[in-house]
Amino acid sequence: MGIQNIPEHELARLREKAKEITGSQFDYQSSYTELLSRRLNGEPLQYIEEYVPFYSIQINVDQRCLIPRPETEYMIEIIKNNISAPKKILDVGTGSGCIALMMKKLFPDSEVHAVDISNDAITLAKENAEINNLEVNFYQSDLLTNVEKLDFDLIVANLPYIPTSNLPTLQKEVIDYEPLIALDGGEDGLLYINKLLDNLKNTNSNELVLVLEVDISHAQSLRDSITDWKDVKLEKDLVERDRYIVARK
């Protein structure tokens, strides 16, 4: 990546970060050069800035988590449109904690739990809970393995859904810097989503709403395969692609 390939708005953000680091509006050049070098090496701007806005909160991000995408931010709208006052919520594969924290902000009277297979991600999510002064129960779990009671009325999951063979086609800055464990969905991209659906087969809850973010190439077939839920529908993302599944027990 050459400096000519970095848009001016990114350079401006790097300058602001350099000023923040040095505490000076004028004497920040060496810090700026260091940050620019990191960006030229392909490090994502969000990791350099160390935070991103997400819906109505701000979260810290680093290489312990995937950088939240606009599709995941829009997932909050999908949830708002499909459930009004959940009492107990579970976020599976929480990463930075962004979805779980937004659930607590949107539904302050709810009890929110969030799990991730990565202890590093859980540590970061807890940091983000403190930063935003939001109370969420974060704990390590491989999907639902360490979840004691499945008495939730909303389960949200943005699980890895990229087929393993497609990972080398991702942008270099994603491959080199972001945790691939948060992207690798196994041979067909459905490994974890299907495991979660299997885990939920025996839940007796009559009021459970499940919201999944999925790959657009899987959306239709997944919807058709979920036959043990009474209402399964697809929702579109910001560019009108089938991106979310909303299912009700």
What does this molecule look like?
- With 249 residues, the chain is α/β, with parallel strands linked by helices.
- The chain folds into 2 domains: 3-41, no CATH class; 52-248, 3-Layer(aba) Sandwich (Rossmann fold).
- It contains 9 helices and 9 strands.
- The chain has helices at 8-22, 29-40, 45-49, 70-82, 98-106, 119-132, 172-177, 191-199, 219-225; strands at residues 51-54, 57-60, 88-92, 111-116, 137-140, 154-157, 209-213, 231-236, 242-248.
- The strands form 2 sheets. Strands 5-4-3-6-7-9-8 form a 7-stranded mixed sheet, sandwiched between helices.
- α1 crosses α2.
- It is globular.
Under CATH, the topology of the largest domain can be stated as: Rossmann fold
Helix content: 25-40%
Please state the average pLDDT score.
94
Structural class: alpha/beta
Query: How many helices in DSSP terms?
Result: 9
Number of domains: 2
pLDDT below 50 for ≥5 consecutive residues: which ranges?
none
* Element string (H = helix, E = strand): HHHEEHEHEHEEHHEHEE
Content of β-strand = 15-25%
Can you tell me the CATH superfamily of the largest domain? Vaccinia Virus protein VP39
> What is the rounded Rg?
19 Å
Question: How would you concisely characterize the structure shown here?
Answer:
With 249 residues, the protein is α/β, with parallel strands linked by helices. It is built from 9 helices and 9 strands. The protein folds into 2 domains: 3-41, no CATH class; 52-248, Vaccinia Virus protein VP39 (Rossmann fold, 3-Layer(aba) Sandwich).
